[in-house]
Design goal:
This protein has helices spanning 22-28, 48-59, 87-90, 100-107, 126-134, 166-177, 192-203, 235-248, 263-271, 310-317, 337-343, 373-385, 396-401, 405-410, and strands at 3-7, 12-17, 39-42, 63-67, 72-76, 84-85, 109-113, 138-142, 145-149, 158-160, 182-186, 207-209, 215-219, 227-230, 250-255, 275-278, 282-287, 297-298, 323-327, 347-351, 354-358, 367-369, 389-393, 415-419. By secondary structure, it is α/β, with parallel strands linked by helices. Helix 4 (100-107) runs parallel beside helix 6 (166-177). The chain binds uridine-diphosphate-N-acetylglucosamine. The site of uridine-diphosphate-N-acetylglucosamine has 20 residues, from helix 1, helix 5 and helix 6.
């Protein structure tokens, strides 16, 4: 298994290009199952999660071709030839459950493995299933699989989510496009990835209103056509690289970055003393004056502070002046990076969903272990600012969500290298 070695090397300077969003691409790809006509996605990120989704879609009969080095995905589901999403593929990635809504809506039946547990909490899929039931689906859980049927097709209904779920909103939204009549999704997620999906579905002929608000209304249509769509920039990759100069000092421009994607995060950076400036080509981040100030962070659904930037923000706050309180409200058990940061000299107390971080003058390099995707990159960021060498082991998580991380950070002056494992 590969490791990454990072050595503290002072301030960073230069530009980092931001890729298309992993989480948007992972929901746009299953949209191919809604139509017989081709769906072309441009600005796709080159990540192992995208390859896993390709394999899953291919197993169902879709054609997936990668062009321009993987930045363009040509998808086509002329016919769905297999209606069972097997455990062996689904277990690798929770987003696999997103094939359920589209397949059921188009074909009237589907069998999809339950994704199972995950390192950042229980993460059930009950909201996905309840939403499909509200559209007339008949569901049965058997042998670890969801057996779904809607013999006469799905029909519109009102779905009121008890709390916000990104994935359940996406599954319901895709299913509703081909349901008979009107579907209203209440307490829907408002994430940019939902807006991106709605825009793409609209290009395919779907009738959708209200994406980006808490209520989305969908008028079902008989069929959807093809489309070409550019994946929205990855706000989590953006936030992660914005933290690199915040932690190490210097000035970095994140190309393609947009403030509307990371507004709550930028507000916290500002409070911590980091400057963010909009440029013609992205966002420029600088830390010029002294130490970062402690700030409190509460993770919330969009437009709040994203849970997927909590670990990286914690890396910044380990060396801030004062005490910061980070409250994780989306996922239980999402502080697994804390003990690893403590191995590097950070002072962190975790009690339930709250972590209290007392800033230290500097971190010291150490061997650490990556536990999930965002935790891995938070350890890399911490290593960039630490004295000496940090070895981040088990980095396979990283490749699920960050393309060419060593190249991108290396280009702005970071000392980072990948060691290939067996
Ligand atoms: C998506 C993102 C993930 C991000 C998360 C929250 C993708 C591929 N992944 O995950 O990176 O961290 O949004 O912004 O887009 N829940 C239930 N029942 C359900 C569904 C969710 O209880 O049926 C719970 C989850 O356990 C969690 C909360 O709801 O506590 C929010 O999860 P959700 O928004 O659904 O996250 P994902 O769509 O899985």
């Amino acid at each position: 298994m590969d490791s990454i070695i990072v050595t503290g090397n002072g301030p960073l300077s230069g530009q980092i290009p931001i890729a298309g969003a992993k989480n948007a691409c992972l929901t746009l790809m299953p949209a191919t199952l809604l139509s017989e006509e081709p769906l072309t996605l441009t600005n796709a990120p080159r990540l192992s999660d995208i390859r896993t989704m390709s394999v899953l879609l291919q197993s169902l009969g879709a054609e997936v071709a990668q062009m321009q080095g993987g930045q363009v995905l040509a998808l086509s589901s002329h016919a769905i030839t297999n209606h069972k999403a097997e455990y062996d593929i689904v277990r690798k990635m929770r987003a696999s459950i997103l094939v359920l809504g589209p397949m059921l809506a188009r074909e009237g039946h589907a069998v999809v493995s339950l994704p199972g547990g995950c390192a950042i909490g229980a993460r059930p899929v009950d909201l996905h299933l309840k939403a499909l039931e509200a559209m007339g689906a008949d569901l049965e859980l058997r042998d670890g699989y969801v057996h779904a049927k809607a013999p006469g097709g799905l029909r519109g209904g009102t779905v009121e989510f008890p709390f916000v779920s990104v994935g359940a909103t996406e599954n319901a939204l895709m299913a509703a496009t081909l349901a008979k009549g009107t579907t209203i999704l209440k307490n829907a997620a408002r994430e940019p990835e939902i807006v991106d999906l709605a825009q793409c579905l609209r290009k395919m002929g779907a009738q959708i209103e209200g994406e980006g608000t808490g209520t989305i209304t969908v008028q079902g249509v008989d069929r959807l056509g093809g489309a070409t769509h550019a994946v929205v920039p990855d706000r989590i990759e953006l936030g992660t690289y914005m933290l690199a100069p915040a932690i190490c000092g210097g000035e970095v421009e994140c190309l393609g970055g947009r403030i509307d994607l990371v507004a709550a995060f930028c507000e916290r950076l500002d409070a911590a003393g980091i400057s963010v400036e909009e440029t013609a080509s992205g966002l420029k981040v600088a830390r010029r004056n002294g130490r970062v100030r402690a700030v409190d962070v509460v993770t919330e659904p969009f437009p709040g502070f994203p849970t997927d930037l909590q670990a990286q923000m914690m890396a910044l706050l380990t060396t801030a002046e004062g005490t910061s309180v980070l409250e994780e409200r989306i996922f239980e058990n999402r502080f697994m990076h804390a003990p690893e940061l403590m191995r590097m000299g950070a002072r962190i107390d975790v009690h339930g969903g709250t972590a209290t971080v007392t800033g230290v003058d500097h971190l010291k390099g150490a061997p650490v272990m990556a536990t999930d995707l965002r935790a891995s990159v938070s350890l890399i960021l911490a290593g960039l600012a630490a004295e000496g060498e940090t070895i981040v082991n088990r980095v396979y998580h990283l490749d699920r969500g960050y393309e060419r991380v060593e190249e991108k950070l290396g280009a702005v002056g970071a000392k980072i290298e990948r060691i290939s494992g067996q």
